[in-house]
Design brief:
Mao_N_sf; TA_system-associated_sf; 11 helices; Nuclear Transport Factor 2, Chain: A; 5-stranded antiparallel beta sheet; Cu_amine_oxidase-like_N; Copper amine oxidase-like N-terminal domain-containing protein; about 400 residues; 3 domains; alpha+beta
């Protein structure tokens, strides 16, 4: 069966109705996406409308056309859809974990097409218009995500795996920790292949992040599975590095706070009566010894904090604790000396030495005053939904 399929370009109708001689004189100019195109020989003017073969217009728009004689149907795919179809191949020969990593890569690079390719057909259908309206880009120039860690991987059943991802947000002038997403991946028969597909993404709400179209944002904590329950933390070297990138800079700052008295601005005019040398700390984030302990216990385990900091610098019955409370204010002993930190931790060299249950050991190189230092082994443990240092840095 042979048919000549024509399409009416309604936007040109008014122009053609003004003068039929315009088309007849071949002076009509058509521009598609800024490129002038020549009308095909089959084009004709009929009842004030310009008719051209549908294949001509689709191909000039960068689309493809397929005609099914048996079904008497035409299928048109736009350039965007062709690109998306090619992206779909990423799901065919991958694992559940690698699919999550691919989605995260799409978030990092703000590629909506890459994110979309990892989703199940149901999620794709629900998010297509939003992705399209955003021109297949997500997020903004800032903030961006960094220090991404796949914190847990729970095999719910053979064809369903649930991942919990933790990450930080950053911009050019600030940094925030505490991002969390729960990603469910299922193995689904998608003709003619069986492939892993992301079926849901639940994100913990925060005021800073621009979430992607495929995420459901929850105001409460994302439901997670603890590594203690799973019996294994299952970290990779890259994830271990991301954990150290979050913990070590904070730990170095804490060593500075307790190694001397110059970490805070103070008001020397405000002192503790009868205790010469103490001055009031002027800092919105540190107004009491309890605030100091909170900062320490966000980085170190309590046992480690007690051995490194509390027993040496905060014990009330010592002659001169470095910090002490007085009348609801925090004071520091300005007579305490201290020295700078000469060690640099080369986190890019970090490698896992071993891991068991909810703990891991990581080895990395150091430098001391820019000279090669000894290798350092750091212990980390997972406690109350976060990774903490369980060993000293010095």
């Amino acid at each position: 069966m042979t048919k000549k399929w024509m399409v009416s370009i309604l936007t040109l109708t008014a122009l053609i109705m003004l003068s039929g001689t315009v088309f007849a004189s071949s002076s009509l100019k058509i521009s598609i996406n800024g490129v002038h195109v020549q009308l095909p020989n089959e084009a004709k003017l009929e009842d004030g409308q310009l008719l051209v073969p549908i294949r001509w217009i689709t191909e000039n728009l960068g689309a493809t056309l397929n005609w099914s004689e048996t079904e008497s149907s035409i299928t048109i795919k736009t350039a965007n859809q062709i690109q998306i179809d090619r992206f779909m191949d990423v799901k065919r020969f991958t694992t559940a974990r690698k699919l999550v990593e691919l989605w995260l890569q799409g978030v990092r690079t703000r590629s909506g097409s890459l994110q979309y390719a990892t989703l199940s057909p149901q999620l794709q259908q629900a998010t297509f218009k939003t992705f399209e309206n955003q021109y297949w880009g997500t997020g903004g120039s800032s903030p961006w995500i960094e220090n991404v860690v796949i914190r847990s991987e729970e095999k719910v059943k053979d064809d369903l795996v649930r991942f919990v991802v933790e990450y930080d947000l950053a911009s050019s002038n600030w940094h925030w920790s505490g991002g969390r997403k729960e990603i469910t991946v299922e193995r689904i028969q998608s003709s003619p292949y069986e492939e892993w597909q992301i079926t849901s993404i639940h994100a913990k709400s925060n005021e800073y992040e621009i979430f992607t179209p495929s995420e459901t944002v929850d105001d409460t904590e994302v439901t997670t599975t603890s590594p203690q329950a799973n019996g294994s933390v299952n970290l990779t070297d890259d994830e271990a590095k991301a954990i150290l990138n979050r913990l070590i800079p904070k730990a170095v700052d804490l060593y500075g706070m307790f190694n001397g008295s110059d970490s805070f601005k103070v008001d020397k005019a405000k002192t503790i009566p009868g205790e010469e040398g103490y001055a009031q700390v002027i800092d919105e984030n540190f107004k009491s010894v309890a605030d100091l302990k909170k900062a320490v216990e966000d980085v170190f385990t309590i046992d480690c904090a007690q051995k490194i900091f509390y027993s040496r610098y905060l014990t009330p019955d010592k002659d001169r604790p470095l910090y002490k409370d007085y009348e609801g204010k925090l004071y520091v002993d300005k007579n305490n000396g201290g020295h700078g930190w000469a060690t640099e931790f080369l986190i890019d060299t970090a490698k896992l030495k071993g891991q068991k249950d909810h703990a891991a050991e990581i080895e990395l190189d150091t430098t001391v005053l820019d000279d090669p230092g000894d290798k350092l082994t750091i212990s980390i443990v997972y406690v109350n939904d976060k990774w903490l240092l369980a060993s000293r840095l010095d």
